[in-house]
Amino acid sequence: MSSAEIVISYRSEDSGSAGRLYDRLKEHFGPEAIFMDKARLRGGMKFPEAIATAIHECQVVVAVVTPVNWSMGITERDDWVRRELAEALAAGQQVMPVRMHGAAPLGAGLPEGLEALAEVHARSIDDDDFDDDALRVIGDLRELLVLPPPDVAFPELPEQGRIEKREAWGSNLSNERATATVEGALRTHAIKLDGDDEEGRTRLK
Fold first, then answer.
1. Quick check: 182 and 171 in contact, CB under 8 A?
2. Burial per residue of 72-97, b for 16 or more beta-carbon CB atoms within 10 angstroms, e otherwise
3. Which long-range contacts (CB under 8 A, 24 or more apart) does 13-18 make?
4. What is the pLDDT along the chain (205 residues), one digit of tens a residue?
């Protein structure tokens, strides 16, 4: 299972709300970038180890906070939501609380291991403005994530270069000479693109 950049931490009673947020994030970042246990875990997998690995390998943990379900068991040491978030904070991971259904801001009274969340700015998603609020969450995540650079498209060889390349590799020339022929065509093309000036020649050195 490939690692994901974003992990959604939620209580099972909030799976509907978390799933709706997952769908929005998936549309923008792709399914491979998001870890939500019900979407990523397969039969036979040991979920404690899988979730712990996802938390340690991700870049951001999104904590879904709702008015009632957040407090269900959060003070218990073996509570799964508490364990997930405490592990993320202990590992130095970025945690973004997302308050839904009118949940109050996180403040004093958080259990041991979660105290740092009181100082973390949370986003709110209202039911009536779900799409717009979800876009704000997506915008924040784009600022936090270090995404891989896009693929670079190299310019196509000019026709002369393609002909010389075919002739070079299709003849009995040695590999060294064939490579030199192709590289020569590339250099000629680069000079035409950069301009036959001192700056262009300098960049080719």
1. no
2. eebeeeebbbbbbbbbbbeeebebbb
3. 13/69, 13/72, 14/64, 14/66, 14/69, 14/100, 17/64, 17/66, 17/100, 17/101, 18/64
4. 457 899 999 998 999 999 999 999 999 999 899 988 876 666 666 777 888 999 999 999 999 999 988 888 888 888 999 999 999 999 999 999 999 999 988 887 899 999 999 999 999 999 999 999 999 999 999 999 986 554 545 455 455 544 443 444 444 444 444 444 444 444 444 444 444 444 443 333 3
Contact 189, 204 (CB under 8 A): no
CA distances from 24 to 7, 80, 92, 99, 131 (A): 14, 24, 26, 16, 8
Identify residue 99 by its one-letter amino acid code.
R
CB-based contacts of 64: which residues, under 8 Å, 6+ apart?
A: 8, 9, 10, 11, 14, 17, 18, 21, 98, 100
Tokens of 1: 């299972």
- pTM attached to this predicted model: 0.69
Closest residue by Cα to residue 86 from 51, 137, 41, 131:
51
Could you give the 3-state DSSP secondary structure of residue 68? coil
Question: Which helix (H) or strand (E) is 9 found in, with range?
Answer: strand 6-9
Q: Which amino acid type is present at position 197?
A: D
